[in-house]
Amino acid sequence: AQLVESGGGSVQAGGSLRLSCQASGYTYRRVCMSWFRQAPGKGREEIASFLRDGTTAYAESVKGRFTISADNAKNALYLQMNSLKSEDTAMYYCAAKRGIICTGDRDWGQGTQVTVSS
After folding, report:
1. CA distance linking residue 1 with residue 3, whole number of Å
2. Cβ distance 6 to 113 under 8 Å?
3. Contact criterion met (CB below 8 Å) for 106 and 90
4. How many whole angstroms separate alpha carbon 118 and alpha carbon 104?
């Protein structure tokens, strides 16, 4: 299985980016997919995910600005990021667990860099 992110780049504060994650080699359930990020000198944190009832969950730091979505037919995951701040600068990772109830190993993409300048 492979996860490949794209869409990162450099943007000014207040701008927007849309990250994409294309999965191949395994069909993940939406509820098993999420976005993480890791800023320089910090640990990796989960910032957006799907809950079992179909709703979405976000870290407080991105709530109201980021939106996670998925296209099951394309086996793809997306992250729309609006009103970007300098503190959003980080490497962004797509992650997905295998299995019907997401108990399998977590697969990771290689990451895509997002840099926000103030």
Report:
1. 7
2. no
3. no
4. 40
